[in-house]
Amino acid sequence: MSVVKLEFNPKTCLSEDLVLAVFEYRCSLSVDVWLFGRVAGLTLGGTVIGDPVKDIIKVAFENGINMFDTAEAYAKGRSEEEMGRVIKELGLRRTDLIITTKLFWGPRGGPNDGGLSRKHIIEGTKESLERLGLDYVDVIFAHRPDVSVPMEEIVRAFNWVIEKGWAYYWATSEWSAYEVEEAQHVATRLGLPGPIAEQCQHNMFHRERPEKEYNPLYKKYELGTTVFSALASGLLTGKYNDGVPEGSRFATHLKFFKGTVDNLQTEEGLTKIRKVKELSALAEQELGCSVTHLALAWVAKNPNTSTVILGASRPEQVVDNLKALEVIPKLTPEIMDKIEAILENKPAPPLSFGRPALDSFGRL
């Protein structure tokens, strides 16, 4: 049994008001997850290794973050190794943590080292747990849909992993609403649990899928979203308003973000930068915060957002991002209308063809 060195204590993390605002998970996953989670992604095990990883996770945990997300593909498995190492070295109590990982792109690229076949789901889970040094993860995500594998095979394989005690729940990432619906139908037919969450991109410039396509799924399946790229890969921080600064994520991962960087010089990209500047002015003048805090708070305020994943590469970024919690109560209907006026991209509601809107009981 590992020795617990660092206990989770919400009273030392945030004010009591913020604890109430953060301590929730709005989906069918019946555990408590703090609204802001920490991601391994392109940083932990990639550009950030060694003691800085420990500093980031320690600061995140001490400030109330208890969900840590990674994937077999991140830094070819090194992200899972670094996260597992730090959890052990910090002596974090396993029951205080929500650990999630994702399967699809295996770290080696072999013929059976990817996708969502039963073989890779089972073998990939075992390898992820070995790298993490854990007996189980709380949620295991299908990192992408796999059109080459029957849905019944996918549903059965993830539930086999759950029955073995290697994961408590399974979920999806960047699946279409049709694919999530199919998985739910297959799971229901087989009497097995379906996916409990969707990890998707959602930010002020990417709204159609999380706000419109998924909308019928939220109440029907008690589905919640685990949001990544809430800052549009850093665009919504304002740091790219005047080009790509040295040391930024776009500069550090230039090959990965080449398409995004090139797009900044197009009419579409310049329009986004103009909107970021207008949002910055709104944030500073009316809310007394940065556009970063506004963008994070805007996503977190959405009633279907379960968790917002943060992609900080330094401890101080974690602390700064959490200031978004103070902005959420300030997002009044009037402020939200001003944001919509700047963005001009609110997804259109489904066509009703003149029929009145009804509530869940069929009433006007």
Automatic annotation (TrEMBL):
Coiled-coil region list: none
Name of the protein this chain belongs to: NADP-dependent oxidoreductase domain-containing protein
Family the UniProt entry places it in: Belongs to the shaker potassium channel beta subunit family.
Molecular function terms from GO: oxidoreductase activity
Species of provenance: Boletus reticuloceps
PANTHER family according to UniProt: HYPERKINETIC, ISOFORM M
Occurrences of domain NADP-dependent oxidoreductase (ranges): 53-343
Gene3D superfamilies recorded: NADP-dependent oxidoreductase domain
Pfam family, one: Aldo_ket_red
Keywords assigned: NADP, Oxidoreductase
